[in-house]
Specification:
This protein is mainly alpha-helical and 106 residues long. 61% of the residues lie in helices and 8% in strands. Helix 2 (28-51) runs antiparallel to helix 3 (54-71) and helix 2 crosses helix 4.
């Protein structure tokens, strides 16, 4: 049976603030795809704030939130969930994120 992760595996501390780490059991390809969405969402948040576009800001924050849930950085604590459930949550987040982009142009 795998051992419980310690606090260094669960949390990242920056400037005294504790941030939940990405679930280390997720496949790297899945993590890379979710981080790509996360980066695009964060970039869109900056642009929307700069332009004052509240609708775009809301959509960008939604993208960030879904990506962070998929990575295990938000929502249920990944170390308290079954590994199969965590993997399905990450895959569902990726599907939801792909749906935000709509169909690809032909």
């Amino acid at each position: 049976m795998p051992s419980e992760p310690d606090d260094d595996e669960r949390w990242l501390v920056l400037d005294g603030r504790r941030w939940r780490r990405t679930d280390p059991t997720l496949p790297q390809e899945l993590v890379a795809q979710l981080r790509s969405h996360l980066g695009r969402g964060r970039s869109a948040v900056r642009v929307a704030k700069r332009t004052g576009d509240e609708e775009a800001l809301s959509a960008a924050r939604r993208r960030v939130g879904i990506a962070k849930h998929g990575l295990g950085e938000r929502g249920p604590r990944w170390w308290e969930s079954d590994e199969a459930d965590r993997l399905e949550r990450a895959r569902a987040a990726l599907r939801d994120l792909a749906g935000l982009d709509g169909p690809l142009p032909r």
